[in-house]
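TICKET: design request
STATUS: open
ATTACHED STRUCTURE:
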């Protein structure tokens, strides 16, 4: 049986449904989708798409750190955007948040996200 543990931190938003922030199995961490919630207020951060993208990556980073990793340990990202015209902005924010080589990634346009968020990201991290 694999070594399985639930990862939880107060430095990222609490789950708003029936899921864990992340689950670690052996040396792989599966990080649930993060939306741009401020972990203290549980409200969407103001300031538009770029501010939301930065908050999403800050939330992902906090979960990574709780699992003894970092954004640099992420090997796969799935991005969800309510407007694909924000694709260039998310690339620029990622360039600020991640070092090369960048993780594998998918970007998907979606109709809507929880709480009216403009952006969500989920990740797989190997430590």
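STATUS: resolved
RESOLUTION: sequence designed for all positions
ATTACHED SEQUENCE:
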């Amino acid at each position: 049986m694999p070594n399985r543990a639930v990862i939880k931190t107060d430095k990222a938003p609490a789950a708003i449904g029936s899921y864990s922030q992340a689950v670690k199995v052996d040396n792989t961490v599966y990080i649930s989708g993060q939306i741009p919630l401020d972990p203290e207020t549980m409200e969407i951060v103001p300031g538009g798409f770029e501010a939301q993208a930065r908050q999403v990556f800050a939330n992902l980073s906090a979960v990574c750190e709780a699992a003894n990793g970092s954004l640099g340990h992420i090997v796969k990202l799935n991005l969800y955007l309510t407007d694909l015209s924000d694709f260039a902005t998310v690339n620029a924010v990622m360039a600020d948040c991640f070092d090369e080589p960048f993780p594998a990634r998918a970007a998907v346009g979606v109709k809507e996200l929880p709480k009216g968020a403009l952006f969500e990201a989920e990740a797989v991290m190997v430590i």
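CLOSING REMARK: The chain has a mean pLDDT of 97. Residues 74 and 125 are 4 Å apart (CA to CA).
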